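Run log, item B.
One chain of 355 residues. Sequence copied directly from the ordering sheet:
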Amino acid sequence: MDTPVIDQARLEAFVGRAIADLTTGYTGVMVSLGAKLGLYKAMAGAGPMSAKEVAQRAGCAERYVREWLNAQAAGGYLAYHPRSDTYELPPEHAMVLADDESPVYVPPAWEVPAAMWADEPKAVDAFRTGRGVAWGEHDARLACGVAAFYRNGYRAALVPQWLPALDGVVEQLRNGIAVADVGCGHGHSTLLMSQAFPNSRFYGFDTHAESLAQAQHNAVVAGVAERTRYAVARATDYPDERYGLICFFDTLHDLGDPVAAARHAAEVLAPGGTVLLVEPYAADKVEDNLNPVGQLYYAGSSLICCAHAISEGGKLVLGAQAGPKRLADVFRKAGFSHFRQVAQTAFNLVFEVRR
């Protein structure tokens, strides 16, 4: 075999890219610490601050905080002012790092790669044997991180944008219908709808009992527990309540048999009912997904989405980058005739599905 000719410039460029990605991993730890220790909140809206002032506000040791501040300034997360030896959190950055109600709040998302690292031995075994890894078998940080990452995005879009994009559904919700949230996790999506439409009844289903316990707690805290119920059930056997709306929020691609799940939805859907399908943003062709969002989703899909689908039998393992055509085909095989994209964000595609 001939020795390949190395393009030195190309090598150096790729080494730089690899080091930048490694730095990103380190930065994620700093971001998670900054959120959990209240360092970002201590700086939000306060203008330039010394390391001592930040440490005092957050109740942390100054020497650790100074090093953290320098790491954040080096990464462009904070501004550093050399003359005054102070650090500042710009208001735009505060929306991403300090405001846990912001739709662009990021820190909890770092719990996901932390869980992926913790689960690396399971991933190695899964890759070598072809076995699946169920959602509940992952490190506990996975469920919390995913729930927190999607919560604010759903809060910003679900009630004000996605539901109104569905033909006639908002009026039905106001009048009162049964709603199923399949694969509800911590129930943030269920809760948002329940708060907005008090005349309707909401049912959240998931196979992960620990997530459902948190969902029930969230419903009690929000004061909607009387009209919001949660139960352990699979996407193919939750009870029939003649649902006017059935929702799959970033769930369908995780299922071992999405066609069977869609078929069950058709069986328990009320006449004139609607399926709301929210899936990760993706184009139909691999080459059109070779971008940062695709990189994130393909990586997560390798260790989480595909692994869970395989654990459920893996009749059709869609993965997180299924794309509209494959998703439409799932519902066509299940007997649905209407499949329409009604919205999209940087991270999601939203579809209206009817029989």
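Observations after the first pass:
- Residues 8-36 form the longest helix (29 residues).
- The chain is about 50% helix and 15% strand.
Flagged for discussion on Thursday.
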